[in-house]
Design a protein that fits this description.
single chain, about 1900 residues, mainly beta, seven-stranded mixed beta sheet, about 40% strand
Length: about 1900
């Protein structure tokens, strides 16, 4: 605007008068807008009624093409909101930059929002008329809330500084006001624009009379603006004056509210004008003053408080404690950097400090951290890199808890939090630094030792480590966002950089009252860090409070000396920045990338400047990361380097840094499958790319982490992948160590690991839950902890190694786990889910034992009694269930309703069981009461009303948690909603004690030590340790570290540790020592024999000390002569299991002379059952001894911790005993091929290189395959899954074993290879057979039982007579005969090997067993594999990855070495070569020539290979697709066959380092199998997300399409007559569990199209008969018709909504057949037994319903088994007939005629069908059932034949198009049949 235009607007412009609003010619009004006389103002005002802003408003000027052109800086709006209503005001302001910015404010807005052209401010209506009810209540309110106006609002004068608003929030320069729009529910007097600042309380007349001199730029209120004030009253008592930018203290800075003062403050315009152009010292704004005042209030000592009142008392002075820096700190920093208090530093000594342990340091600046506890922490910089002791003068030393601190953080299981993209290597590559929510963890990769950087109070969002690994930077998110700089080596925080850019300057002015200064606050949102190589500068990128991207560069050169961290440069930018780094060759240069940009930055003249890289056609890509080319040539400039930039589209750009131009572009494509079935090397070309999330470069290679879960290593020219590692989720970060030997990888699933490039071994460092942990339970015997999380997983962790052992995942959101409890003795746990189901899982088998549905709501809490006899579950709808837990089925004893307080999120402490397992306490039946019941019967003993215990309280108190004290105290602790803990006598219900204000918020969880001395409580994110008796002056210590609510806390069973969960799993060391009277026995106490005996409390007394599960510390006993535990007297009790306390520190066993025992585990003070075998107890069994005499009453063994043991897959099916086998030679089906290998077996593959005999098992079939022709023979005879195989040395006999059960014994079959007949069937073992072995002369045959019986059986191969049996004391894993003598064999088991000799007498044979413990170097372990080399040398492998070499003559181990990082399950040896196979998926070939030289008998000690004297060389290593479970090699160890748990058999050739997939199978369930129309291929889909295409002639896998983390539910072929299918083009469509449909091309082996027709899983999929459309049915019952070419959804049918679709099938029809037009007929079946038949002509977009069938059925049974599916198909032999079967009154197949509209006939069945397929010829149909039976039926004559070949439910069957072949599947077993007909 021109100066002339501005003159007429001076001193102000009355906008209503200027626009002549009363004429409504220049102003537009809409809706209910009227004029009336206001009695308060005594003038005419304008009232807008109506609540819809778009329909009720006043707009100035009338049209948007006009402009007010008002240049006034201040805009005054005189208005009053309508009572209890919402209003809104819009202002369009023009900036000098040419933009029009809309500024809106309203009491409807809940928060501040901003874009480049729009600012939205919330309006806090806090004012009310003097004396009104609202005004009185508003005085005491803590906050003025956004919402409707008060019932009696007052008139308000709003002054808005338009220039400041645009400058502060958008960095724009104000030009003029364009328009104003007043909307809805408000009354307006006038609007004024001016450059003057008017004082509302001073009228023009008063100004003249008083003669006041006002500052320049201010003026009294003009007459047109002044509100009338009666005599004797004040303007500010009657009206509100609001200035913006805000000066309020009770609401956010980005809001409009009434000021805190009743009198307006006047300032010059210059004082209010913010300066944003340069970074320099400015005056302190109100917002900053309020923050500094808050720090002063926090550091003020709190007055004493009572239990019923917590009033805030203001103090005018602070107590002082002077700290003088040490010599070290005095020498660093300049005097001007210190506070003005002199050499000492003023700090605050909080009175009655309970001891908050945050490991905070004294740092630069003042930072206030308010924890959930009663204490606040002020961290003040004293230029000291170490902790500062604060002195406080007190008359005496207070008594407090000792030691102090009583807890020490030991380990954290977790990774990430705010981000999964932060992890860095240390300089030496030995440590990995990563965030775990609010704590930074540095882990040694070799030892997994952790050290912590503690000080952040919210989640850490960014990390950076300088090149020298001396300085670590970290940033936290949240409202208290800040940056910390740490000394990396000692973990001390050097300084704090608040994200307020002028914080250090503003602290000096914390008492000044300057207003309206603008200070930019940096919010740590998506922040990125980068240190320069020298560590002298730190760059930071983030969003400020106005959502502007801000780049800051700090000078960190002097931070280690205690100096300040000045800002080198700062800039704001509109471009998106995803990543920013400082170049390693120049500290003043940086590079950034983001959406659509790559920019190069440089610091010059104190300012940051940037230039973009010309990206050309790639300007719209989203760039994610970048890395510089490493290395340097001396003849090139230092900045002549290539910059590699990755993107979400898979493109990787190579940018010339000097030329600022793109010089090369590549793209990452999905992997291809070749005809050799191996993954082809990745290439860069055109096509659909894979998103690259991270990239890292070293001198020799480049690493990429992509969205498909792969970390790939490339050469620098990206020619091909030479190494890749697949992860469970998208890779979010890759980072190469400084020496290039290791590559760190992080995933979005919370996994962190690294790849060792030289050994090609991948090591997982940490796994974690992706969301909050809701609860946990500790298994003290096996030192495991199981956690349940909101991510719908239950995970089992090893407490010592922090490794995840197992995870159980729920795919159903309505059935997610929410509570968990370990059995105190047995290796299983109970889990309650949100669906009301309680499940019990066996840990070691990862199987479901039982499940119960006794709750209709979620199971909020599950808990076992300490003696393990009972299990309790509490539901959200008030139900309480009692189960007997002694047996695995956990049968229900009693269920009570309306017993537990209803509601969700109660937590794990709503139930509690006393330590003697006699009483159960619970919160209920209402939240105000607590009930104590008898645990065994749930009979009520006592009820306590918590609400009446505090008579002084005005509100009802409710119970939250309960916890029993040890039995001898008879206390029940209750936490309440009033933040109290109540001590209740469990016998009388009397209130004994109470503690108030336990935490600042409600107590979430509590736990009590077993000795009754310590109490743990959690509140919000803090943990408190209390003196239980409350006798000390300071009765608690407070610990923080969690960033979220701590949901549960528990002592470990040995009470030497504490576990807390919330955001992560924290393991603390409990440092308190046991009481002295617990260690009273004499140190010279002699060895005693311990015999268990029952007592009244189910405990055992040892020399007067009770041994119970709740008080292990009281059982402590120090001995010098160590007692021996005698197990002969141990018996199984009728009411539970007897448990013994075995503690390394207190109770040990004395080793016997000449006998070697393994060392005790690291923590053995937990309760465990331990069995020791002495030499004199070595068992020998005569041949005539019966099994009952051998077994006696031995205890049931625990399942050993190793994968070596065979575990039958859990199944609910059972074999039909009434099946009718077809007559010989008349079978309608013959088995043609078995497709796959049983990866669940152990040693279930044998191969004889000399004869070529190749045998393996699949299910219960023994398969003999010719490796040259691929033809198969099959041996049938087992009824259960085969566990293991063995072959004689002459390859004439094969032995196979299948598992036993409760009703039948294990079956061992002896097969003749010559004719395939079963010559003998042996049955002895009750459980599964673990191992089979033939002697060297094939005269003897050995079988090993599994852990449940541990029996060795020896058989004669002449008659297969049982010669002798031996009952072992420990579980056995494997056995082997010596290959050089017939009378020697070796057994291996838990912690020992057994040298065994076979002694033959005249009429008997016996086994002499000598037990030898494994070496101390190995530690406690399971010996899992063995093999002989020569007669004198034996090799054994352990579950810890160690290999031991034994001298068989001296029975000693003389060499050990760490051969693998996993369990070694396979060992093969010949000559100087050894092969190891492990559960780390690794197969290794070792050279062991040097081991032969160590068999000197004079060498008495075992040799570890770490001493350098013995060398075992690793020659080759292969990484396979699963755990190695079987292997056979030739005599020279050059070639062999290896089986894995993935169902694959590999051919291995070490000579040319090749591996060929011989047999491919499924590990998970097969969901579908369909033959192609040309019968050249067939396709399968499975739960693993794979779609596999096979060659029908050879049964070889041709191509596999893999989708991670999804299940492929259905699959179909495109029809041969499809209109869109050219000749030879064949496609496969697949439906997935995420609702997508993918179409794959066999010709190109690529995915051509991806559709999303459903929001839920796709259950059925089929092309239309002519291929025009694709029909898909979802789990929600919707049927979608989509185009297979474009993917467009043509139509959606909702007729079956509510029941998932089970079948969709299509066929052809005559055009007007059945009276409807159309050339196709199709049907859909849903689970509610409804069938719809449709006629369609897709070319004419016609689809009409032909018929609707509903089949009646009775009410479903009460058991939990799912109902059989509803199945239907068109009959290929009878036109117009639909065949249906499903759950109904009868088990039958129904034939329905579409012509006659009636049922033609039915065929009765013996069992419910699970699958149905109709043959195109012969009128045949196939039906599979849950009874393991495939039934072939003639549809007309009803003739049938049963085939019981599968070992599980037959749930998939399908004929080929010609009907000559049939495919069937049972779980992962896939069979191909030849159809002969009936």
């Amino acid at each position: 605007m021109s100066s002339r235009a501005a003159l007429w607007q001076h001193p102000y412009v009355n906008i209503f008068k200027h626009m002549r609003i009363e004429e409504w010619k220049k102003v537009n009004k809409e809706g209910d807008v009227t004029t009336y006389m206001d009695k308060t103002l005594k003038c005419s005002v304008f009232r807008i009624r109506g609540s819809i802003p778009a329909s009720n408003y006043i707009l100035l000027p009338k049209t948007s093409s006009q402009s007010l052109g008002l240049t006034g800086r201040y805009l005054y709006l005189l208005f009053r909101p309508s009572p209890n209503k919402h209003f809104i005001v819009h202002m369009d302001i023009c900036a000098e930059e040419g933009q029009v910015i809309r500024v809106s404010f309203s009491n409807m807005f809940k928060e501040f929002k901003s874009t480049a052209t729009w600012l939205q401010f919330p309006f806090f209506v806090c004012g009310a008329t003097e004396g009104s009810v609202y005004e009185k209540t508003a005085r005491t309110a803590k906050h003025c809330l956004v919402g409707p106006a008060p019932p009696n609002p007052c008139w308000t004068c709003l002054m808005m500084d338009l220039r400041s608003v645009l400058s502060v929030y958008l960095n724009r320069t104000h030009s003029h006001l364009k328009s104003i729009k007043l909307c809805a529910n408000m009354t307006v007097k006038n609007i004024i624009a001016s450059d003057l600042l008017f004082d509302p309380g001073l009228s023009f007349a008063e100004f003249r009379q008083a003669g006041i001199v006002l500052p320049e730029g201010t003026a009294p209120m003009p007459r047109e603006m002044f509100f009338p004030v009666p005599k004797g009253q004040s303007w500010h008592q009657l009206y509100d004056y609001i200035r913006f930018p805000s000066d309020g203290a009770n609401v956010p800075f980005d809001s409009i509210q009434k000021g805190s003062s009743s009198t307006a403050k006047t300032e010059t315009p210059a004082e209010q004008s913010p300066q944003r152009d340069q970074s320099h010292t400015v005056g302190m704004s109100k917002a900053v003053h309020e923050r500094i005042s808050l720090i002063q209030q926090i550091t003020t000592p709190k007055p004493a408080r009572t239990a019923t009142q917590r009033s805030a008392v203001q103090t005018t002075s602070l107590p002082e404690a002077i700290y003088t820096p040490s010599d070290r700190s005095e020498s660093s920093g300049s005097p001007d950097q210190r506070l003005q208090a002199g050499e000492g530093v003023r700090v605050v000594c909080a009175a009655d400090d309970d001891g908050v342990h945050v490991y905070a340091r004294c740092e630069d600046g003042v930072y206030s951290d308010t924890t959930d506890s009663e204490e606040e922490i002020a961290v003040i910089n004293a230029q000291s890199p170490r902790p500062v002791a604060l002195r406080c003068d007190k008359p005496k030393q207070p008594q407090k808890l000792f030691p102090d601190p009583i807890l020490k953080l030991n380990r954290i299981i977790g990774f990430g939090g705010a981000t999964m993209k932060c992890a860095v290597w240390s300089l030496d590559g030995e440590e990995v630094v990563y965030p775990c929510h609010a704590i930074i963890v540095s882990m040694m990769v070799s030892s997994r030792h952790q050290r912590f950087f503690i000080g952040h109070t919210d989640k850490v969002s960014a990390l950076a480590l300088n090149a020298a690994s001396t300085l670590l930077a970290s940033a936290q998110t949240g409202s208290n966002s800040l940056i910390r700089l740490w000394s990396f080596h000692d973990g001390v925080c050097q300084t704090i950089i608040p994200t307020n850019m002028h914080a250090l300057h503003l602290l000096r002015y914390n008492t000044q009252m300057e207003k309206h200064r603008s200070v930019t606050m940096m919010l740590i949102v998506g922040i990125r860090f980068s240190f320069s190589r020298s560590g002298s500068s730190l760059s930071c990128v983030g969003k400020d409070s106005h959502n502007k991207t801000t780049v800051i560069l700090w000078n960190t050169r002097h931070v280690t000396g205690g100096g300040v961290v000045p800002v080198m440069a700062k800039a704001h930018t509109d471009v998106d920045i995803q990543m920013m780094k400082i170049t390693f060759f120049d500290d003043t240069r940086m590079v950034s990338c983001g959406v659509g940009n790559v920019r190069l930055w440089r610091v010059r003249g104190g300012s940051l400047r940037s230039c973009p890289v010309n990206l050309g056609e790639y300007h719209s890509l989203e760039f994610t990361d970048f890395a510089f080319e490493q290395g340097h040539a001396q003849d090139q400039p230092v900045d002549d380097r290539t910059l590699f930039v990755s993107s979400k589209s898979g493109h990787i750009l190579e940018i010339d840094y000097i030329a600022v131009a793109v010089k090369n572009i590549r793209r990452l494509l999905p992997a291809q499958e070749s005809h050799t079935h191996r993954r082809e090397k990745q290439t860069f070309s055109s096509g659909a790319g894979i998103a690259v999330n991270s990239i890292s470069v070293c001198d020799e290679f480049c690493v990429t982490g992509s969205e498909d879960g792969f970390m790939r290593l490339w050469p620098l020219d990206f020619s091909s992948v030479f190494l890749e590692a697949e992860h469970e989720g998208p890779v979010s970060l890759v980072c190469v160590s400084s020496d290039g030997s290791r590559v760190l990888a992080a995933t979005t699933r919370g996994n962190l690991g690294y790849l060792d490039v030289s050994s090609r071994g991948y090591h997982t460092l940490m796994r974690s839950h992706t969301t909050s942990v809701m609860g946990f339970s500790v298994d003290g015997i096996r030192r495991r902890v199981t956690t349940v999380s909101k991510d719908s997983t239950v995970r089992v962790w090893d407490m010592d190694t922090m490794q995840q052992l197992y995870d159980f995942v729920s795919d159903d959101d309505d059935d997610s786990p929410c509570s968990v409890a370990f059995h105190p003795i047995m290796p299983f746990f109970a889990c309650g889910s949100s669906s009301g189901t309680l499940r019990v899982f066996d840990i070691q088998t990862s199987s479901l034992i039982t499940q119960h549905r006794q709750h209709s709501g979620s199971v909020e809490c599950v808990i076992y009694s300490p003696d393990g006899q009972w299990l309790f579950s509490a539901g959200s709808l008030g139900y309480l269930a009692l189960y007997r837990a002694l047996k695995q089925d956990h049968h229900v004893v009693r269920v009570l309703g309306n017993v537990v307080a209803q509601g969700v999120n109660h937590g794990p402490d709503i139930l509690a069981v006393s330590s003697d397992s006699r009483c159960l306490a619970l919160v209920g039946p209402t939240e105000y009461t607590v009930t104590i019941m008898e645990a065994q019967s749930l009979n009520e003993l006592l009820r306590i009303d918590v609400s009446i215990l505090d008579v002084e309280s005005s509100t009802l108190d409710s119970a939250l948690n309960v916890c029993f004290s040890p039995t001898f105290l008879s206390h029940l602790l209750i936490t309440t909603s009033a933040n109290k803990i109540l001590w209740i006598n469990t016998h009388t219900g009397q209130l004994l004690r109470q503690v108030s204000e336990v935490h600042k918020r409600q107590c979430v969880s509590l736990a009590l030590s077993g000795d009754g001395r310590y109490l743990l409580t959690t509140g919000q994110n803090s943990l408190k340790v209390w003196d239980y008796n409350m006798h000390l002056d300071i009765i608690s210590q407070v610990f923080i570290g969690h960033s979220e609510v701590i949901r549960q806390v528990r002592f470990t069973p040995d009470h030497r540790g504490v576990v807390t969960v919330g955001d992560a799993l924290f393991l603390w060391d409990f440092l308190a020592q046991p009481q002295e009277d617990e260690l009273s026995p004499s140190p010279t106490h002699r060895a005693t024999v311990i015999s268990p005996r029952r007592s009244a409390h189910n405990s055992v007394e040892l020399n007067g000390f009770p041994l119970t599960s709740e008080k292990p510390q009281e059982a402590s006993l120090l001995t010098s002569s160590l007692p021996v535990m005698n197990r002969s007297a141990e018996r199984k009790e009728s009411e539970g299991f007897l448990r013994m306390c075995d503690s390394t520190a207190e109770l040990q066993l004395k080793p016997t002379t000449g006998h070697t025992h393994s060392p005790s585990p690291k923590h053995t003070s937990f309760l465990r059952i331990t069995e020791w075998v002495l030499d004199e107890d070595t068992p020998t069994t005569p041949t005539n001894q019966s099994r009952a005499e051998i077994a006696g009453e031995s205890c049931t063994q625990m399942r050993p911790d190793c994968y070596k043991h065979f575990t039958p897959r859990f199944k609910t099916s059972a074999l039909d005993q009434t099946i009718i086998a077809p007559p010989p030679g008349q079978a309608g089906l013959s088995l043609k091929a078995v497709i796959g290998y049983n990866g669940n077996g152990r040693n279930n593959m044998v191969w004889n290189p000399d004869t070529g005999l190749f045998v393996y098992s699949c299910g219960r079939i023994v398969v003999i395959e010719d490796l040259h022709t691929g033809s198969q023979k099959h041996w049938f005879g087992h009824t259960e899954e085969i566990s293991t195989l063995a072959i004689t040395h002459d390859a004439q006999m094969v032995a196979s074993a299948s598992g036993g059960g409760a009703t039948h014994s294990c079956l061992i079959c002896i097969w003749k290879v010559s004719d395939g007949s079963c010559s003998n069937r042996l049955s002895y073992h009750k459980g599964a057979v673990q191992s089979l072995a033939f002697s060297r002369d094939d005269m003897y045959f050995l079988s090993l039982g599994d852990f449940s019986e541990a029996v060795v059986a020896l058989w004669s191969t002449r008659s297969f007579e049982l010669l002798c049996t031996v009952q072992m004391s420990v579980p056995l894993h494997d056995a082997a005969f010596c290959p050089f003598t017939a009378n020697e064999l070796m057994l291996i088991g838990s912690d020992a090997v057994f040298f065994t000799h076979l002694q033959t007498h005249e009429h008997s044979t016996e086994l002499q067993v000598q037990r030898v413990g494994i070496p101390n170097e190995v530690g406690r372990a399971e010996v899992t594999s063995l093999c002989y080399n020569t007669r004198r040398i034996l090799y054994t492998g352990t579950n810890s990855g160690s290999v031991c070499v034994w001298d068989c003559d001296t029975q000693r181990c003389f060499v050990t070495w760490e051969a693998d990082d996993g369990e070694i399950g396979v060992l093969l040896c010949s000559g100087n070569k050894l092969i190891t196979g492990s559960n780390a998926k690794k197969l290794k070939l070792w050279s062991i020539a040097s081991v032969q030289n160590l068999t000197n008998p004079n060498n008495k000690k075992s040799s570890a290979l770490h001493d350098g004297k013995t060398q075992v060389q690793l020659e080759q290593e292969l990484l396979l697709d699963g755990t190695v479970i079987s292997a056979t090699f030739d005599d020279v160890m050059d070639m062999g066959i290896v089986g894995t748990t993935a169902g694959t058999l590999w051919y291995i050739n070490w000579a040319d380092s090749s591996s060929i997939r011989l047999i491919s199978g499924y590990k998970t369930k097969v969901n579908g199998v369909v033959c192609s129309p040309d019968e050249r291929h067939f396709v399968t889909c499975g739960q693993d997300g794979s779609v596999r295409v096979w060659a029908l002639q050879s049964n070889e896998l041709l191509v596999q399409f893999q989708v991670l983390n999804q299940s492929c539910e259905c699959v179909c072929w495109s029809p041969p007559r499809g209109v869109y299918e050219p000749a030879g083009r064949v496609r496969v469509a697949a439906g997935y569990s995420d609702g997508t449909v993918r179409i794959f091309s066999l010709e190109s082996s690529e995915m051509e199209l991806k559709l999303q027709p459903h929001p839920v899983a796709v259950c059925a999929l089929q092309y239309s008969h002519y291929g025009h459309v694709l029909l898909s049915g979802g789990r929600d019952g919707l049927i979608t018709i989509s185009s297979p070419v474009t993917g467009v959804i043509v139509r959606t049918l909702r007729d079956h909504k509510g029941a998932h679709i089970t079948t969709v099938q299509c066929t052809s029809k005559q055009y007007k057949e059945f009276g409807l037009e159309g050339n196709e007929l199709w049907l859909a079946v849903s689970a509610d037994r409804r069938v719809s038949i449709w006629a369609a002509d897709w070319m004419k977009q016609k689809c009409e319903l032909l018929d609707w069938l509903t089949f009646p059925a009775p009410n479903p049974p009460e058991d939990s088994h799912p109902l059989p599916p509803s199945l239907a198909a068109f009959s290929p032999s009878e036109r117009g007939v639909v065949v249906y079967t499903g759950y109904a009154v009868e088990k039958e197949i129904i034939f329905y005629s579409l012509y006659k509209k009636q049922v033609l006939r039915t065929i009765s069945l013996s069992d419910w069908p699970l699958c149905l397929s109709l043959c195109s010829t012969g009128r045949l149909l196939a039906v599979g059932s849950n009874k393991l039976v495939l039934k072939l039926i003639h549809s007309t004559s009803a003739r049938f034949q049963d085939f019981s070949t599968h070992s599980d439910s037959v749930d998939v069957c399908g004929f080929s198009w010609s009907g000559s072949q049939l495919f069937t599947a049972a779980y992962n077993e896939l069979l191909l049949w030849t159809v002969h007909g009936l």
